[in-house]
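Record minuted for completeness.

…
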Amino acid sequence: MFLFLFLSFPVPSLFSNTAALQVSISLNKVELSVGESKFFICTAIGEPVRLEWYNPQGERIVPSKRMALHTETSRSRLIIYNAIIEDAGIYRCQATDATGHTEEASVVLEIYQRLTFRDVQSPQEFRHGETAEVVCDVISSPVPVVVWYYQDKEITEEHHSRFQVLANNNLQIQQVTKADEGVYRCEASVEARGEIDFVDIAMVVNVPPVLSVFQQSFNATADYQESVTFTCMTSGSPDPVVTWHRKGQQLEPSEQYIITRLEGGRSMLTIRNIRQGDGGTYTCKATNKAGSQEREIFLKVFVQPHITQLKNVTAVEGSAAMISCVAEGEPLPDISWRRASDGQTFVDGDKSQDGRFEVRGRHGKSVLTISGVRLTDLGRFDCEALSRIGGHQKSMFLDIEYIPKFLTNHTIYYSWEGNPVNISCDVMSNPPATMLWRRERFTISAEGTANTRVHSADGKSVLEVTPMSDRDFGRYNCTARNNIGVRYQEFILAQADVPSNPYSVRLSAVSQRLATVTFMKPDSHGGVPISYYLVQYKEVGSQDWRDVKSHSIQTTVVLTGLEPNTTYEVRVAAVNGKGQGEFSHTETFQTLPIREPSPPAVHGQRGMGKAYRLGLVKQDDGGMPIVEYIVKYKTDKEEQWMTKLVPGANDFAMLQPLQWNTRYEVEITARNVKGLSEPTFYQFFMPQKPDITAESLFSGMGLGTVVGLGLGALLLLLVLVDVSCFFLRHCGLLMCITRTLCSKKTATSGKGKEIEEGKAAYLKLPLKEENGKESLKPDTIEIKVHSDNSIHTKPDDSKA
C-alpha cells in the first residue's frame, strides 16, 4: 500500500518579516522501501535561534536509535534508519528567530514493502503418505503474485492433480511420496514495480523405518565363552538409527555387548561370553523422523550343570551320615556319586549289597545316605551333575570321629639301672585325644618326676623313664580320651640283659691274607637291640686276641692282614646297650701258602698315532705283591716276539711304535717273588694310516685360531713387501719412519749445515746372504740420509 503525503511550501505569515527568515528542505518527495535508510537536510535563511523537526503525528522528534538529529545554527539533518510502514507521512522542519517568529518547510515520505520472503525454511520435511504443505511466506505492497516451479516447470493444477497453491501462497501436495522429494521454487512478483524474486525450498520426504530380522530365535550354551550375533536389516529415510534393548533398557557397547553398524542398513548385536542370565528376549528398534519399528529376537541359553551346594560332612563311627548335593542347569542335570577310595558309583535309586549306601534324589537334589559309618568310609566322595550340555563335578570329604585307638602292640620295654628308656604311646583318634600316664594309682604329671619325664606330640605321648632301682621297673598305664570315649593301654618296663652268644661260626673265602667270618644271630638280644658284633682272632699258641667290630649288625666280617700259611682261632660275641654277651665257640682255620699269581685280565684301547694302550687288571697276587708284568707282542706274520717289562704297580702298558694295517698278538704274564703266572693271550688290529689333509690339520682349531693365523700371515707378507720397497725403491712405511726420525734429529740440533758438512744419520741393518737368510755375522751396512732426503748405502769400512 502506498501512503501519499502532499508537500506544503513555506507561506509567509501575514505579520512576519519574510525577508528575515526562510526555511527549505533538500527533498520534496521521497519513496522509501521498508528497511532502507534516508536523511533530509533543513536549511534556514535569516537568524534562527532554533530548528526543530516534527513527525507525521505532529510530535517534535526527539533523537532515538532509528531517528537521529544533527542541528547547527541554520542547518539541521534528520536521519531515518531502517524505515518501517509507520514512518510514512509529512515531516516538518520549523525555524524560530529571536522574536519568536516561525517559518517551516515539509517533505512527503512514502513507504512501500518490497518483496520479502519471511523465514522460509529449507529443507522442509514431511512424512510419507501425509498431506504436505510447503510454506512460502512472502510479503510486499501491493500483494505479490506467487508461482511454484518444480524441475524448471510451472506447477499447475491441470497437470498436477495432487498439487494445489493455497490462498496463503503455500504449496499443498496430497499423499506425498518419496518421488515428490526435491527442490521447489517459490517465485513472487509485483507487476506495478516490475519487481520479482524467488526462493528455492528443498522438500524432504521421510519414510518410516521398515525392519526385518534374519532369525528370530537362537540357542547358546552358557559358561563356554560362546558368542551369538543378532542381525537386523532396516530401510527408511532418513537412515534409521538402530538401537538394541533388553528388559526395557537400551544396551550400550561394552566388553559383553558389541554393536556393529554396516552399510546397507544392517545392524548386528554380538553377545560375548554368554552366561545363564543372558537368556530371554532382545528388541531391535529402528527410529527416524518418520517413526519407529521394533522386532523381537529370543535367545535360549543352555546352561551346563553346576553344583551349587556340596559340603563336607562329619559323622561318628557307627552312626548314619547324609550327604546332600544340589545342582542346577538347563536342562536339569542327573546327579551321581562316586567313592574315591574304590571308584564305586551310585546313582538315584541305587542301594549297596550290604544295604549301607542308598541314593535318593529329585529336582536337581541328590542325597547319599550311609548307615553304620565305618572308618573305611573315611575319605573323598565325588558328586557329578551331568546333562547333554556337559557335566560338573565337585568333591566333599567325609570325616569320621571315633574313639581313640592304640596303634602298636609293642608294650614291653627293656632297660637297666641308669639307662633312660622311652615308652611310646601312639594313638589314632578323631578328634585328637588328650593323653596321660599312670603308675599304679598315681598320675604322672606333664612336668614329670625325678626320674620320669613326659614328651607329647600329635597322636603320641612318650614317657621317658630312667630306672634308679628295682622299684622303677613294672607296669605303666597310658590313657587316651576324646569326646567320643576313652581307652587304656598298659606297658611293662622290664630289666634288660646282655645278648646270648652267636652260633654257627663259619670261615669262607680264606686266602693268604684274607678270611671271611660268618655267623648266626644270638637267640636273645637281652631286651635291647644289638649294637654290633665283636670278632676276635689270634694265631694258635698266641695269647693276644685282635678285635674287629662288625659294620652295624651285619653277621659277616672280613679279616685282613693275615699271614700266609698260618693257623688262626676266631670267636664272636654280641654287644648291646647293657654290655657284651658271651663268646661263641672258638673256630680254627689256616690261611693259604704263598704261590704264583693268577693270570692278569687285559682290556685294550687304541692310543694316539702308532700306539696301543693295554689295560692291566690285577687278579689274585698269590699272597705276595706283583713285581712286574712281562708283555710280549708280535705281528701275526712274524715269528720273533718283542718284550716289554711293566712295573707291577702300573695298571696299563703302552705298546709303540706299531705298524699300520697290521694284526698283533700279545702274551702277558704276571710275576711275584714266588714265580710266574699262567700267560694271558690277547689280539688287536691296528687300522690303516689316516690321511693328513688341511681339513684334519685345522679340524682341532677354532674359528678364531684360523682367522688369527690368516691375519698373522698377511701381516708378515706386508712387512716383507715394505722392507723390499725400502731397499729397492727407497719408499714404503719403513722409509717414512726413517725420514721422520732423521728430520726430527736435524730440527732438534738446529744446524742444517751439519748435513752439508757430511754429518749423516746412520742406520745399521743386518746383512743378508744371497739366499735371503740373515747372516749370523755381526756385519752391518751403512745408510746415509742426506739433506735432500736421498739415501746412499755402503759396506762398513771395517769389512771393505
Q: What stands out?
A: The first strand starts at residue 22 and ends at 25. The mean pLDDT is 85. Residues 703-728 form the longest helix (26 residues). The radius of gyration is 67 Å.
